Amino acid sequence: MTGKVGIIANPASGKDIRRLVAFGSVFDNQEKVSIVRRILLGLEAAGVEEIIIMPDTYGIGERALEGLGKRKLKPRVSLLEMEIGHGATDSTLAAQKMAAMSVGAMVVLGGDGTCRAVAKGCGKVPLVPVSTGTNNVFPRMVEGTIAGLAAGAVATTGAGVIQQAKKLDIYGPEDWRDLALVDAVVTKEAFIASRALWDMDRIEAIVATRAEPDTIGLSAVAGCLSPVTPEEPAGIHLELDREEPTATVLAPIAPGLFSAVPVGRWQRLTVGEKVILKSGDKPRLLALDGEREVLVRAGEEAKIVLSASGPFVVDIGATLKRVQGEGFFNMAKNVRP
């Protein structure tokens, strides 16, 4: 047990174009400051000795500390030494550095895209993902106080309930290219332009690690057709067919935005199974967890592989129940007669 926790808060999450084309709420950076402040207090209550915060262009960590006024936190708090201003790579680099510093847990504020960036660098460090993004399938809507408490319990006791998430590995002709935690979507686009994806007319296929009808985003299309839980060692692959669909699915693809999606073929995937993408004479763009990321050039072949080796994630409720049973909240245990 390290008694050390990292905090990664993405100042750009929850602000993409889907706020304009749909009806999502906005997590502004001041709200993130407030959430981080409550996370800090939760970590303190859990007995964490050291807290490391990723710096960012808005100064979320510094503002969270300033808002505490004269109240001095018991844990040592520092900003990670790193260059900033490079988008998602900031989160990946911060995760790598925190993992090298042997943090016992990382609290991540963002959406699916932020969690994906952190997953590239966190190694085996368990994550407590807090939803502040647009499409929030991977992170949870959880009060910052409780997120900090759970992360602190994991770091100080080692008694957390931790599950390993699934992922999709993307391979090109030159080998591994990228990963997705929730879904990889094949689009007809040839340019990244706006990274966010919402136009179903431009989508050809969806591959997902999980598919639930009570979520929002492109994985919800599969969830409204053939659900796959996060715990199942399975995934799903859908091919859209606008001319001869075998099913038409009504799905919430963005906040307040529904679409009737024509599906041709679909199949469940087993762990290790591949989906082969042949771009033919036109390039294709893969959108990973809702953002256009990987270009498959004309004539290239790409593979999307379902893996069980995703990041480790803290089950917040189960963790707090477990440590409660072990006396974590019993203040009398530290009182001598």
Task: Give me the secondary-structure topology.
Blueprint: E1 4-9, H1 18-21, H2 29-45, E2 50-53, H3 60-66, E3 76-79, H4 88-100, E4 105-110, H5 112-119, E5 127-131, H6 144-157, E6 162-164, E7 167-172, E8 175-180, E9 183-187, E10 203-208, H7 219-223, E11 234-240, E12 247-254, E13 257-270, E14 274-278, E15 284-288, E16 291-296, E17 301-307, E18 312-314, H8 316-325
Parallel strand pairs: 1-2, 1-4, 2-3, 4-5
Antiparallel strand pairs: 6-18, 7-8, 7-17, 9-10, 9-15, 10-11, 11-13, 12-13, 14-17, 15-16
Describe this structure in words.
By secondary structure, the chain is of the alpha+beta class. 23% of the residues lie in helices and 31% in strands. It has a seven-stranded antiparallel sheet. A hairpin with a 2-residue loop joins β12 (247-254) and β13 (257-270). α2 packs across α3 (60-66) and α2 (29-45) packs parallel to α6 (144-157). Residues 17-21 have low confidence and may be disordered.
